[in-house]
Amino acid sequence: MNRALCDAHPVDTASAGPSGLKRTKRYKTCCTAGSVIQPDSRHEQTLVRWDLNPRRTAVIVVDMQKVFCEPDGALYVPNTAKIIQPIQALVDAARGADVPVIYLRHIVRGDGSDTGRMRDLYPNVDEILARSEPNVEVIDALARRSRAT
Predict the structure, then answer these.
(1) pTM
(2) Burial of residue 105 (number of CB atoms within 10 Å: 0-12, 13-18, 19+)
(3) Long-range contacts for 81-88 (Cβ within 8 Å, ≥24 apart)?
(4) Is 90 exposed, middle or buried (0-12, 13-18, 19+ CB in 10 A)?
């Protein structure tokens, strides 16, 4: 059986070490690249590590907004509760290593010109994700802090 390193199924972890932010990526070796992998005796893991250069690295936090992450949010996704703490740890490690943290928010103009197919699923998405809505802000647990804090 020919085994190939499968880039389609990495498991990422991040931690801060003595030299700053480190990233560890575990690749599962699988029989067919791109197939869904269930851990069993046929699949092994190869651990790959590399140092990150803080001058050429950034952490990007995407769509961790109140509207998606808080139970009273109009587009609440319950599974976001499971990822808040790991993202918070990554953000804290990045800040500790002077790595920039960039926040992206899903907002819309409110006139329907940029909602696309999302409007088919959520007819009032123009109001829900309008820039002026307070629920489009990043959740407090991950909110941007000033350089002094």
Answers:
(1) 0.63
(2) middle
(3) 84/139, 84/141, 84/142, 87/61, 87/142, 88/141, 88/142
(4) buried
Helix, strand, coil percent values for the chain (each to nearest 5): 25, 30, 45
pLDDT digits (tens, 9 = 90+) for 2-38: 333 444 444 444 444 444 545 444 444 444 444 444 4
Strand partners, 26: 11, 47
114-123: Cβ within 8 A, 24+ apart = 122/74, 122/75
Residues of the chain with pLDDT > 90, as a percent, come to 45
Give CA–CA dist 4/44, Å, rounded. Answer: 11
CB 76 within 8 A of CB 70: yes
In angstroms, rounded to a whole number, what is the distance separating the alpha carbons of residues 69 and 80? 6
